[in-house]
TrEMBL record:
CDD domains named in the record: PPAT
Domain Cytidyltransferase-like: 5-133
Protein's GO biological process: coenzyme A biosynthetic process
Superkingdom of this protein's organism: Bacteria
Protein name: Phosphopantetheine adenylyltransferase
A GO cellular-component term linked to this record: cytoplasm
Annotated positions binding ATP: 9-10, 17, 88-90, 98, 123-129
Compartments where located: Cytoplasm
Catalysed conversion reaction: (R)-4'-phosphopantetheine + ATP + H(+) = 3'-dephospho-CoA + diphosphate
Originating gene: coaD
GO molecular function: ATP binding; pantetheine-phosphate adenylyltransferase activity
Keywords from the named record: ATP-binding, Coenzyme A biosynthesis, Cytoplasm, Magnesium, Nucleotide-binding, Nucleotidyltransferase, Transferase
InterPro entries, per database record: Cyt_trans-like, PPAT, Rossmann-like_a/b/a_fold
Pathway: Cofactor biosynthesis; coenzyme A biosynthesis; CoA from (R)-pantothenate: step 4/5
Length: 163
């Protein structure tokens, strides 16, 4: 049984993330979407909210499991019994960073391989940061995120504007 992890902060999950998730779950027996709870970052959504949104938008994918994690990715991979880490690439700049992380992870745990998937062309420009910026100014984000995520993002932005 081939088990893989697709890690990220998913703040919020976009159609680009879902593209990688949907394609990955066809390649492996079990895909664990690892939601990083990174205390060094100030995410818009709590880790629990990000997990809930991912569970909602992947509920039709029977071999996908959403799991919150802290710390090193390689430790999480060991805990989950995963042999593969999946990373999405949008551009060459992503590759430079991801290659360095892949090589570091392989040095720490030679038994875990990294597999890169290029993002489908229609999502190659898309990032969570861009989506949050558009939403902050009241722009239409429906073409970038699933409806359930758009609803949650709009609620967050309205609450921020009230503060």
């Amino acid at each position: 049984m081939l088990k893989a992890i697709y890690p990220g902060s998913f703040d919020p999950v976009t159609y680009g993330h879902l593209d990688v998730i949907r394609r990955s779950c066809k390649i492996v027996d079990e895909l664990i979407v690892g939601v990083l709870n990174n205390n060094a970052k100030m995410p818009l959504f709590s880790a629990e909210e990000r997990v809930k949104m991912l569970e909602e938008v992947t509920k039709d994918l029977t071999n996908v499991k959403i799991v919150l994690f802290n710390g090193l990715l390689i430790d999480f991979a060991r805990q989950q019994g995963a042999a593969v880490v999946i990373r999405g690439l949008r551009a060459i700049t992503d590759f430079e960073y991801e290659l360095q992380m892949s090589q570091t992870n392989h040095k720490l745990e030679p038994g875990v391989e990294t597999m890169f998937l290029t993002t489908s062309i229609e999502y190659s420009y898309l990032s969570s940061t861009t989506v949050k910026e558009i939403a902050a100014f009241g722009g239409d984000i429906s073409q970038f995120v699933p409806e359930a995520v758009a609803v949650e993002l709009e609620k967050k932005m309205k609450a921020k504007r009230r503060v």
